[in-house]
Amino acid sequence: MVRAIVKAFFFGNYFYGLCAVALSIEATLQQGYTLSQSYYYLLVFAITVWFYTLAYITDPSLSSSANPRVNWYIKHRKFVNSSQIICLFISLLVGVYVAVVYWHSMLYMSFKQLFPILLTPLAAVFYYGLSFLPKYNLRKVGWLKPFVIGFTWAGLITIAPIIFYNLTHHLPQGISPIGWWLFLKNFMFVSVLCIMFDIKDYASDSNYNVKTFVVTKGLRYTIFSIILPLSVAGLVSFLIFGSLNHFSNKRLILNIFPFIALIIVSYALHKRRNIFFYLVIIDGLMLFKAICGIIASL
Q1: Would you say 18 and 45 are in contact if contact means Cβ atoms under 8 Å apart?
Q2: What is the percent of the chain where pLDDT is above 70?
Q3: What is the number of domains present in the chain?
Q4: pLDDT of residue 62
Q5: What domain range includes position 106?
């Protein structure tokens, strides 16, 4: 029973939903805002689970596979479809509620509020592709895919909570310079995780001619010339940012931990790892980063 629950939690993308909520709380506190209403985080959780699961239930190869995650979707197709309906219903219900209650504020949203918030769904739509523009499916552009995912996550967890807070409190503010820096930091952090995750899919990406970094450059080059340098660059940039903004030593150290963990896990990828290493350890770095950031902010 425990094993089945663990598989459903990670394979069903509920862990991604938890990470999205935690990172949203982290980014909100780091920008000096109080938390939004609980239904907002329910929306973030539901839309994240729905979005990630969509890739699997629409995959044409979801008929037979040696991938344990794909096999789980095949075996639990009815449960997954029900989960998708519930997540979509929750998302629509919260969306309608916000539109009805705050329609007046939405009508008077400024360009500096509208422009950032529209970038995230636009990137998400192009990630899957448009039915009338199939060549613009960014998932098939291997080297670009991690950065599209990173951009989408950064918008969801950094920009969306602040715009929502300002909307529900009738405030005209957009994103502050610190908010844009946090957006860039989250963008690079998640993008590096996605590049790491592509290592797991090396065989299938190679067969489908998806030109990810590991397919085109090889494993060693990807780890030591792309992942590790980006991780170190993120650490250095944070140290500079923290010193310029006079962060306390405790706050600096707590926010450094995720970058150190990222570097350690990056080096560990030179050995073959199973799928749960990627789902629990690599994706778990997002939750670890959120926890460290929340504690540091408090």
Answers
A1: yes
A2: 89
A3: 1
A4: 54
A5: 2-297
